[in-house]
Structures are given as structure tokens and as C-alpha cells.
Fold this sequence. Notes:
CATH 3.30.1330.10, 2 domains, 35% helix, binds adenosine-5'-diphosphate, binds magnesium ion
Amino acid sequence: MIAEFELIARYFTKASPNALLGVGDDCALIASGRTIAVSTDMLVEGTHFFHGDDPFLLGKKALSVNLSDMAAMGANPRWATLALSLPEANESWLEAFSGGFMMQAQDYGVDLVGGDTTRGGLAICVQIMGEVDAEFALRRSGAMIGDEIWVSGNLGDAALGLAHLQGEIELDEADAAFCLKALRDPVPRVELGLGLCGISKCAIDISDGFCADLSHILERSKVSAEVEFAALPVSKTMEKYRTAPLGERAILSGGDDYELCFTVPPEKAALLEAMGKRLGIRLSRVGRIREGEGLVVVDEAGNAKRVGKAGYEHFR
Ligand code: ADP
Ligand code: MG
């Protein structure tokens, strides 16, 4: 079996042009004249992914979910570390996993500069670091009364994919492929996050579900929100399920979307829409920030429902 140092050298040691010193010493050395945004996300087998999941996509997603946090802060991702707990040193698994991770790292200009490797249950912990101007960072506390609430992409496809895997719903082949791609291979909105600096002051990435994540913004900004259910963006696939309880639940509180939810003053809407076009990302205006506290979702019949942090359970 491959030894630990050899494993690190073979699969996790790549050129790191963003760092003064990368993998191989006691610490990496990085330097920047800017403010550093730092975030960590852990993926644990059985909690965040299934035993036997494709290792290439798992490696890619492990970085993507961290890139999504950078996006939500308006930060430019530059460095990452990777702590891995592995049940065994399976080389074909490691080859695929590091291939997915490194491909995504290269695509987004991130250097893997260090990490740790131990034996144990399969768990993947990534720390990511990026650069941001503190003044322009997209903070959860930045929503202002009168701001409009926007969402990128579509909501709920990943949750629909998960429901399909868990046998709660049976999607046809094309819909299943589409939703499972959303679940296993989310696209982090890094370019959008960078573009939002100066247009928006407030963003969050939707990882736990739209209502739950918007609620974090509301709490930190000490404001309330009114959202129109019909304005929430959905895919053609989700369109078939949006009025069914399962679809509604996926849209409002499904996890793993990795879209951005952000607030923008109305006078900047045209600027924002132009940016969305330039980046080729669907941007949808879904509601408005108001005084007070809590989240109200107005359904198609015009009924306003107060939504708790958990979303769906309190919605119906
Ligand atoms: P230490 O004994 O100081 O913890 P290690 O032997 O664990 O050092 O790691 C050796 C080098 O390899 C360090 O630079 C560490 O950051 C790096 N490293 C270990 N595991 C990984 C990994 N999974 N991915 C990237 N770098 C790693
Ligand atoms: Mg170590």
C-alpha cells in the first residue's frame, strides 16, 4: 500500500504559483496586500454524500462548496488546504478524487498549499482563502430596508435529485440526470460574487435551503423580507413539480443549490441585469427587504405565510 508521504507527493502536490511556499514544509507561506477571506467546509460520508459516490465529482464538489463561500463574500479564491480522513489508501479512488479537486482548483485559480492526511472514516475538510476588499465584502449584515432580493440560477434541482435517490419521487431519465448533476456537480458563482462587489453589500450562498439562508441575512441585518413564491426561479424540470408539496419544499428549503441570494438597492437593478447578461447567469428578483423581522412568502393565491428558519414545515 502507498505510504502517506508518497500519497501526498503523488496526488496532492502541484505547482502553487499563488504561494511563496506550497505543499511539503511544516507550513505554507502566502502573501497578499489585501484582506483575506477565510472559510472551511467539511464533507462527511453518510452526512453529505453517499458511500460509493463518484470520487472525481466528490473531489470537485469538495472545492466547489468552498468556492461558493468565497463567491458569497465577493472574494477572489486563491489558496486552499485539504484535510482528508481515509479508510484506506485506494489509489484509483485517490487518483479520481485528486483529479476532480485539482481540475476545479486550476479552473478557479486556486493553489492547494497544504493539508493533512489520516486514516479514519471518509471525511473531506477544505479550508479556502481568498482576497477581498473589506469595504466591498458581501456581508450577511449588509441588507438595507428597501433593497430588492435577488437569486441566481434556479432553486431546488439538487433537492429534487436527492429525493429521487431516496425514492421519494421517480424522475424520468432526463430529469434525473439533470437533477443529479445539480446535486453532484454544483457550479460555484465566483464570477457573480466578484461582480456584485460595489452593486450589492449583502449576499449568502444557498447551501441549506433558500428560506433558511435568507433568514440568516434577515437576522444579521435586523430586517424582514417579503418574497413572492411565483418569482422564485426554477428549471423546466422543477416547473413540473413546483405546485406539488415535494417541489415546493425543494424550492423553499432544499439544500445544495449553491446559488447566491443577495440584496440590491432598486436603482442598481439595471446595472445588475447587465452583469447577469454578460456572465450568462439567470438573475431573478424575488422579493424586498422591509422593516421588522421574519420572512413572509406570498403564494400564488396571494396568501402571505410566515416562514420559519426551517422553511417548509412552517410554510404549509
Ligand atoms: P506535519 O507532520 O507537519 O503535519 P505532514 O507529514 O502531515 O506534515 O504533511 C506534509 C506536507 O504535506 C505538509 O506540507 C502538508 O501541508 C501537506 N499535506 C498533507 N496532507 C495533504 C493533503 N491531503 N493535501 C495537500 N497537502 C497535504
Ligand atoms: Mg500532518
